[in-house]
């Protein structure tokens, strides 16, 4: 992945001093039906009218509807008009963010009523894993808002005029209240509504690319500015969601699942506590998998020279991430129930290994527009991304990823085998630390052994199957691997 500044290739297009908008042509992939580009946004609004055409039999209408749905799922968009669906997704993002944190707060409250010598530690760490990630994410958001005045290549600047005192104060207050990600979603909605109002007033004709929207200079330039500003904030929002998910949801998921697995149901005072913990686990898993897919989409929208993900590719990539993360989190929690100190030694070793790997890649995500490295900012970015690679792989640097994926998933498969071996050996001998001296936690039963030993490889295999389908059938660049591109580990 390129610099956060230099990656904004979509913003290079707008040049106010030119006499007309610049056309952007996307590379086509001949013979690849899933990479067909439509010149206008296809929200499916005309499906009902076409299906209801007179003179067609029911079977013809069904076949026609199936073809249209297939086309919609397998067509790469080149232009992302803000629609009611986009508005719904923004609102859903706000709700998911709030519900995710509220569910963790509810868990912390319910744990206060539980008994056992470990309960106070569980509650304390639950609160820590709520507060610290909130502060980190909002700090990132505030710093990025400060960088909105940086002018990008081609003359694009997300924020040309300086913010007045009231607006700066409002931003600071919102971030102190840890509502930075919500503010960003609201800003995206505002930009989108501005686009819609401009389109309703001036109209536009989508020609050869997302920026050829009107032959009228004034109208076209204004629309381009609105469109690019929205894409800029959508990208930042996706990156923040990725950071938030892996420094908050991932540790919180492990903690709550560990509590559930290490205690016997009879130790619970309230069943509601276990249900709240299960809800927190599921929300965290959903947030983690969605953030990885959103990150991939945002990275592609930031570069107009690459084709975009089809809806079917998004779904398959989400399933790949969901299954791989589920298996890894489950293994971590199983090992935690019997080897608490050893787990953190293992986690530290894996983290250092990932950090060294990233450093050898020499990424330049935080570099300036002209490619100059910012060592301190880049180091902070590498430290955060190394933590994400503890759980799943993300593309840190541009280029083929087949060798990176092969190395990473080979490593975690070996890790899973070793961790599950030690878990099985200890739980079989009933040596795990217990909250009670009268019975074993349910995760140590013989029946649970069988389920766990079968489920872990099944989840990982499902994830690898969807990964294979994505890269060989649904990747926007065509069927991979591309042997003309040399793959590298670093």
Key traits:
mainly alpha, 13 helices, 490 residues
Quick recap of the structure?
With 490 residues, the chain is mainly alpha-helical.
Strand % is under 5%
- Based on helices, strands and strand pairing, what is the structural class? mainly alpha
Query: What's the β-strand tally?
Result: 0
Return the average pLDDT rounded to an integer.
Answer: 79
Helix content: 55-70%
- Report the C-alpha radius of gyration, rounded: 25 Å
Poorly predicted sequence stretches spanning 5 or more consecutive residues: 6-48, 205-218, 431-438
Distance between the termini: 12 Å
Biggest β-sheet description: none
Shape: globular
Descriptive account of the structure:
The chain has 490 residues and is mostly helical. The chain is 63% helix and 0% strand. The protein is built from 13 helices and no strands. Helix 8 (271-301) packs across helix 9 (311-336) and helix 12 packs antiparallel against helix 13. The relative contact order is 0.12. Residues 6-48, 205-218 and 431-438 have low confidence and may be disordered.
């Amino acid at each position: 992945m390129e610099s956060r500044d230099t990656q904004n290739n979509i913003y290079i297009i707008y040049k106010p001093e030119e006499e007309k908008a610049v056309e952007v042509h996307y590379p086509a992939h001949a013979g690849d039906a899933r990479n067909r580009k439509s010149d206008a946004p296809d929200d499916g609004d005309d499906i009902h009218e076409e299906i209801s055409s007179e003179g067609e039999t029911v079977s013809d209408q069904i076949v026609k509807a199936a073809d249209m749905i297939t086309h919609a799922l397998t067509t790469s968009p080149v232009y992302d008009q803000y629609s009611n669906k986009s508005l719904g997704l923004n609102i859903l993002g706000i709700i998911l963010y709030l519900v995710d944190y509220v569910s963790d707060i509810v868990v912390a409250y319910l744990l206060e009523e539980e008994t056992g010598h470990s309960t106070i530690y569980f509650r304390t760490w639950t609160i820590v894993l709520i507060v610290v990630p909130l502060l980190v994410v909002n700090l990132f958001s505030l710093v990025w808002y400060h960088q909105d005045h940086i002018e990008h290549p081609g003359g694009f600047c997300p924020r040309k005029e300086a913010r007045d005192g009231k607006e700066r104060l409002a931003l600071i207050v919102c971030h102190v209240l840890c509502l930075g990600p919500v503010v960003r979603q609201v800003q995206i909605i505002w930009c989108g509504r501005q686009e819609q109002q401009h389109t309703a007033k001036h109209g536009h004709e989508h020609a050869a690319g997302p920026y050829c929207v009107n032959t009228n200079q004034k109208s076209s330039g204004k629309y381009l500015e609105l469109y690019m500003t929205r894409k800029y904030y959508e990208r930042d929002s996706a990156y923040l969601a990725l950071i938030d998910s892996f420094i908050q949801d991932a540790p919180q998921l492990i903690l709550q699942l560990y509590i559930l697995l290490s205690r016997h149901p009879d130790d619970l005072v309230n069943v509601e506590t276990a249900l709240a913990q299960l809800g927190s686990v599921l929300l965290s898993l959903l947030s983690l998998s969605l953030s990885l897919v959103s990150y991939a989409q945002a990275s592609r929208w930031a570069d107009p020279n690459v084709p975009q993900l089809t809806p079917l590719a998004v779904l398959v990539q989400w399933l790949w991430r969901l299954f791989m993360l589920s298996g890894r989190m489950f293994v971590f929690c199983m090992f935690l129930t019997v080897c608490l100190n050893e787990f953190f030694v293992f986690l530290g070793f894996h983290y250092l290994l990932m950090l060294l790997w990233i450093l050898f890649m020499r990424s330049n995500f935080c570099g300036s527009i002209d490619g100059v490295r910012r060592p301190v900012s880049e180091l902070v970015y590498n430290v955060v991304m190394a933590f994400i690679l503890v759980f799943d792989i993300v593309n840190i640097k541009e280029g083929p990823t087949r060798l990176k994926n092969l190395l990473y998933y080979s490593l975690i498969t070996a890790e899973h085998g070793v961790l599950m071996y030690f878990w099985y050996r200890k739980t079989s001998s009933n040596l795990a630390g217990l909250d009670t001296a009268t019975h074993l936690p349910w995760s140590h039963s013989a029946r649970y052994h069988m389920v766990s030993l079968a489920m872990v490889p099944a989840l990982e295999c499902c994830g690898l199957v969807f990964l294979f389908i994505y890269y060989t059938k649904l990747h926007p660049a065509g069927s991979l691997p591309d042997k003309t591109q040399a793959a590298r580990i670093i």
